[in-house]
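Question (not urgent): is this output format expected?
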Amino acid sequence: MNDCMGVILAGGLARRMGGGDKPLVAIAGRPILQHVIDRLKPQCGLLAINANGDPARFSAFGLPVICDSVEGFAGPLAGVLAGMEFGAAKGAADVLSAPGDTPFLPADLLARLKDARTRAGAEIAVAASDARTHHAVALWPVALREDLRRALVAEDERKVSAFIARYANVIVEWPAQPYDPFFNVNRPEDLARAEAIAREESRS
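Got this back:
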């Protein structure tokens, strides 16, 4: 298998969307999560969804659903840890993380992160666009899983950026035109923009 596993972080509380599972909201006739899967599947040898609660609600997607191994709602870092642990058990060397509400991820995401990490001699590579760093879109070595578990459990670390800053890392920039590939559907008004982008893509 490809030595990188993709983990889709679908465990957010979606407060700004009124609660519920934001990745299951439809754009262009398909759940946002399906768009994310379609973007990542050609890049990763294995994909999994990180989500808590009843995994049956994601059964239609045909992917493993892995829950946080850290108690309480510990945020994206807990999802990254779950991906690292699952990936390590499957023989993956790296985990590519991405939120479940980012339907337009670039097709060269893994290739560019991996290349930049190698060139920089870094441990973690992080995506950026439009002068913003997207810390939850990153390439992580599974070898950091024990460090991450310690940070979450013993140190109560919750900030993705703070954990990344502990290690040699490299930021990889993508253009934000004609649209930001890391655009995420956070609020109801974002749905209209996502629909417009999807229509533009279907015509190109």
